Structures are given as C-alpha cells and as structure tokens.
Amino acid sequence: MASANSDEPSPAASTVNDDGRSEAEIEARMLELLHQFPKGISNKILDTDMPTVNKQIKVNILNELMSKGKVSMFKAAGTQELFWCLKSHPTSRIKGADNEERVVLGLIEEAGNKGIWTKDIRIKSSLSQATLNKVLKALEGKKVIKFVSSVSAPKIKLYMLFNLQPDRSITGRLWYNNENNEFESELVDLLNHQCFEMLQQQKEIAQQKQNEGPVTVRNSSFLSSKEICQVSSDMKLVKFNLTVEDIETILDALVFEGKVEKSTASDGNCNEKVKMYRSVAQPVPFASITKTPCGVCPVINKCGKVGAIQPKMCKYFNEWE
Amino acid sequence: MSSYTYTLSPFSQVCRLLMNNYFGEIVGQVGENLLRRGNRSLFDIKTGTGMSLWDVKRALAVLIHHNIVTFQASDRNPNIAEYSLIPHNAYCILRYPKYLYTIKRIYGSSEEVLIEILLNIGQASASDVIFQSANRLNEAIDDVKVLNPSALYQSFQKLAADNFIIRCSKIEKNAFVENVPKLLELKEEEKFIVPQLEMEPIAKLLREKATQLGEHSDSEVIWRVNHQRFDVELRNVILVNAAARRVDAAAGELYHLILKLWREACPVEARTSNGVSHSLIKDAVRKNDGGSPLLMEHFDQYLRVLYEDSTCLISRTGDSGGGQFAVNYADVFENLACAILDSVVLERFGSKALRIFRLTRMQKFIDQDQMQNLAMIPAKDAKMFSYKLMEENYLQIKELKKGTSNVGPVKSFNLFYVDLPQVVRTVLEMSYKSLFNAIARQTHDLTANKLLLEKHAWMENMLERLRGEDTPDDLLADLSESTMTAADKSLVAKIHKLSDNLTLGQSQADETILILESYLKFHFMA
Q1: Is the CA virtual torsion A123, A129, A130, A135 positive or negative?
Q2: Which site in A206, A294, B23, B273 is 20 to 30 Å from B130, CA atoms measured?
Q3: Does domain A23-86 have CATH number 1.10.10.10?
Q4: CATH 1.10.10.10 holds for A91-171
Q5: Residues of B with Cβ-Cβ distance to A293 under 8 angstroms
Q6: Nearest CB to A295: which of B297, B347, B440?
Q7: Same fold, A91-171 and A185-279
Q8: Across A308-318, average pLDDT
C-alpha cells in the first residue's frame, strides 16, 4: 500500500470530508480524471482538481483503487514523480480472485501478445512452484488464461490471456492451429494452388504479347510478391491478414517444387529489392523412364534373372496399357 | 560356360542381350566373354566359352566387322593379338532405328538408305554402299528405269561432310610381315574425305542387275558409321527441345543454329565450346530462310532471354564482336539431369518428397527443422519423406559435431545433402535395369509363344491372299474361326500390344540414359 507524500501511517479514512462529498463521489471523480488523462495523472492534477479534499483521503482512495486493480502506479523517469493511470483490462472482473492470482494475472497481462514463461512468472512474482501451479490451474479452469507452445522451444509453456491471438514470433507462422498446434496443411495447399493458378494466368497473358519479343513476354510474366499478397487478401481466402512474408513462404515452397522461378528486381520508386516470381516449364518435361513400369516399380531392387521377381513374369508388365 | 559366376553390371547385361538378339547366340557368347574378362586372346576366348575355334573365329570376325571389337598386339607376346570389346558401340545397336530416323529428318530417304546399308554391313567401301543402296531402292520402287547412282554418290558426300560417316583405320603397309597387323589411325583431315569415284561402272552393273560389285577402285577406302556424331546429334535434339520449352519454338530454332556454329568452331568434344560472336550468329539467322520471322525481328531479345535463362543454355563469355557466346556442357547437363531426377523422385515418392529433395539440393546442406519450415510440410511428413529418400540413397547425411567437450553424449548436427553424381549413377543403373527388363521380356514373349505367333502370321497372310482374290467375307470369317480360337487371337493381340509398348519403353529408357550419361561424362571431364 503506497503512501503519497507522508511517512506517517495513514489514519482511517473518514467518510465525510471538508467539501461535503462522499468518498464514493470522490472516487468517481478520480476515475473520471483517470479516463480524461489516459496517460496518467500526477499528484499535481489531483490537487488542482480537488484542492479541498484531504490528501490522506485521496491517498486512501487511490490505494483502494489499486488494490481493486483498476489503477496502477508508475514513477516518472525524469522527475521521479508518481503517476497513476487506469488499467485497460480491469482484472477486477474476476470475482473472488485472491492476491496471488491477481499478481500472476497481472504479469500475464503485461506480457500481452508474446506470452510469459512459467519460470518468468515465478521469478517476478516470487511465488513458490507449488502455489504457482495451483494458481495457474485455477485461472485456466476459469478460462481466463491459456497456454500456447512456442515454435522456437516446443517444450516450454507460455501463458497468455484467453482471448488474445498469439504473436507471430512464437507460433512461427500463421500455419499452426491454435489449439493443438497442428500444421494447417489444407490451408497451405489451398494457398499454394491459388498462387500457382495466378502465376499461370499471368504467364498466359504474357504469351499473347509474343509479337513484341521474348523479353517482353518474359518480363510481363513476372508477378511481385506484393501483388500476389494483394490479390490473395482481396479474395478473402483466410480469416486473418496475410502479410507479404507469409505469401513469400508459400511461393518459396512452389519454387522448391520446380514450378516457379524467383528473381529479384528493384522497385521503380524506391531502391528496395522486390522479389518477383514467374511460372516456368522445366527443361525436360518428365523423365521418360517414369513412363515405363520399371521406372516406378517398388521392387526393382529385387528384380533379377532368378527368383520370384523376374521380367518374364512381371505382373506390372501384364497390366501395362 | 564361363568359369566365373558373378553377375554382370546392368549395362553389360544390356550389351550382351543386344548382341545376342542382333547377331545370334554364338556371337553373344563370345561378346559376353569379352565383356567379363576384358582383353582376351583367341585361345583364351575359346577355352572360356567352350566353343570350337572355328565358331569363335567367325564370331570375332563379325564383331570386328561391325566395329564392336577391335584388336591389337598383346603386350606380353607381340605375336598374338588381343581382342577387346567397345561396350559403347555394342550399346549403340539399340539406337540404330533412331539413327535412321535422325538421318531421314535431316536429309531424306536416299541418305537413310545409305546409312541403313552401312549399318547392316558394318564396314564397307563407298562404291559398295552406293551399289547396294541403289539395288535396294530399285527393288522398292519396282521401276523399269534404273536409278542413277550419281545422286547417291552426292548423298554419300553430304553425309561424309557432316561427319556422320567416318573412315576406318587403315592397315599399315607392311602389315602382313608381322604376325599381328597394325591399324593406323588416319589424320583428322583425311577421315571425312570421299575419294573420287566413277559412277559409270556401277551404273552399268546396275543395268545388268548384278548382285555383287566385284573389284572396284576404292576397295581399300573403308567407311563406317560415326557413332560419336550420332550421339552428339541426339543430344542436340534434347537441348533444342529444352530451349523451346523454356522460351518458345523460335528460341529452339535459334539454339539449333548456334549449336551448329559451335560444332564448326570446335570439332573436338570438350566441356566448354569455343566462343562464337554475335555477328556470326546473326549472319547464320539471316541465311536461314525457313526460319520464323519473329526470330529475325527480335533476334537480340531471343539471344538475351536464352543467355539469361537459369538452365545455362548459353553463357556470355566476352564482349568482343558484339558479344561472345559459348556453352558449358557440364552446367547445361547438370540442369537437365536435375530435372530428370526431380521427375523420378516425383513419380516414385510424391510431390512433398520432391519439395524436400529440391530444397536440399538448392540449399546444399540443411537441417531437419529448417527443412520442415522451408518446405511448408507438417513435421511428421517431412521426417518420413526425408528418411524414405535417404533409404533409397537420394539424400545423404553429414554429421558435424557441436561443441568441443568429449565428455558425455556428444551432440552433433545432422545435415542432409544431395550427392549429385551418386544419385545420377543410381538412377542410371535403374534405367539400365529397366531397359534390360524390357528387352528380356520382349524376347521371352516372342520365343515362348513362337508357334502361336507363327500360326497367326500364316493365317493373316492367307486371309490377305484370299481377300485379294475376292472371296466373300463370311467365308473368310469362318476360316479364321476354325484356324484360331477367339482366346488365342486375344492372346496374340495382347502379346503384340505388349511388344509395342516394350519397344517404346526401350527407347524411353534410352532417352533418360543419354541425358544421365552425358552429365556424368561432362562432369568428370577435365
């Protein structure tokens, strides 16, 4: 319980003060002020607003607000003055939460999108392991917090508020499901297919310009990753926003399938390098050997002149069309 | 009946089977002995195969005459000749139909007949070849007027000028003094020069319908088919197709012309060709009348697109003369071989495995975790495919140790990488094996069902004859019913169909083999 500017122990607050307002009214006024100055109010502002109110009462009210979790206290960096500001997520909506839970919850809220590790919570709240576990279980049961796994260290558990989306840096990419950390392969396949179709269409459009020469054809069959991102976002294939990096990872997967080629070009306006992609044909369409049964035979290593597997009685040959 | 029982490599098995099918069992056995044991003297071959000396001699004569076996004096005893097999030439028997098709495509039917005769005989003088080709054409045309052999003579000269036929090595003058005649290699310039021939005597013989040429002036000047040149031609077809696929058909034409220029600039097969200047290429395009108009119009653009392409079809080596352009065959064939390998991985394991394979190849060395992230594949699948590929030797693992302490379990990085020559060799062996299987199966089918097939052929002939004599259709149907049952007929149809498929399969395997062999050859060339 912090005291504003006196060293004396604070006396009990009296319900009536000089100006005739009740405590509840003063509290309400303070909350208004806090809303008015979201960046925080200092003692000075309080003084100018309610000069007649006893300092002690103000202090008591502020302390009470803090313990209810509506207000938090900060120290200004330069002047070492104390500020109070309104908390954005009042944790007081949790009924019957005891102090430890509130502390833990406060820490988890602070971590925000990125989540916080159990060890960090333990250090910051200086609770013992057992109490911490109990608290976390209780909070999870109330569905206030949840844990997610980070891609970088799959074993550690990060906690964050229930309704927050985990930040990109810990789930690696949007390609992981929230609940069970499964790789969303259908989504990836869908996007994959979509991007490839786009590039194919662009190539066909470019082909029609054949009379202008092959360099024109080639250059107009390129699409930059930004453009593809734009079109995909417009199509609203996915619920969340696609960034350029996401699309680039999909396109890189297409490069690794050999269907698409990548090159960098400098943007017209600025000096950044932009990644361009186009659909290409392989120099050899397919290995002719794969058209024969032997090319794809699963038991070719066992095939020989003697034994059960011989070309004379190969059933794949019999069924070959 | 050889005393060794180890199995031959798939390539040698293919050669053996080809010799067997083309020349017969006796020659096949002699060929196999030479394949297994390398250089052998006549007596060794006789004891090795257990055949009579007479048979072995004749078999060797056939093989030498067809340029598959060559001889030289043995090191140990200069009075005895040692015979050695040229496996590549034995393998090229498979490609004879492709040679004929190539020649027909480039030149025409009279040149095709010349090459066909030369392939049949093996080695022959120019007059002989011309004489026999004329006879063959006369039979085909069935005309009273006899063909003028001077047209054939010109065709022969054209073939020699383009190096499709080459002169055989001469026998030294004092050859028969020593026990083993020494073969003298001709000088480069002389190899392709056709001697002056008089066509009159040949024309006279043709009019008399003679079957043999008899004595003629150039019987010492012997020609054979130049396998190397044909291989280059088959390779060029693949390269031109690749250029056409990457850009468009006009680019393919341009590439074809440039290939010709490179060949003229640098006749010896080397890893990189000599540079050819921009102006030279432009002249060639201008002279090429049948080319597409787009090519001339956008000539610079086409050239630029080709040399900027990532398959390294052309590389710009200098700036003199408007730009010097050359090709590095090692690079081009590396890209083509990679495309082949990608296709094989795709067909055998699926597209996810292909992503992993290409990814590892492009990144050179990669970790298991990175693999999963870059390829956008779920972790379990990525692991499964990478281990499957490793099982079949498409991927290898390299271990790098982490940390320097040797206390306790040592952690190490396990990196995947692709050893390209190794994988190419694996797929090449597989291709040889599949080629062997196709030939073996075809031979087996045709010999096992020989009686049935002969009966069917006889029946077909008879029906044709009767159809020509205007017999009513229902009589024909009755006759065919009684000769062969429906089940038999369907079996024959099936055998024929499979045989056609197998022939196709053989030529497909050969295409793949050509690209992979070229890659290995240029990769390991100095």
Answers
A1: positive
A2: B23
A3: yes
A4: yes
A5: 505
A6: B347
A7: yes
A8: 85
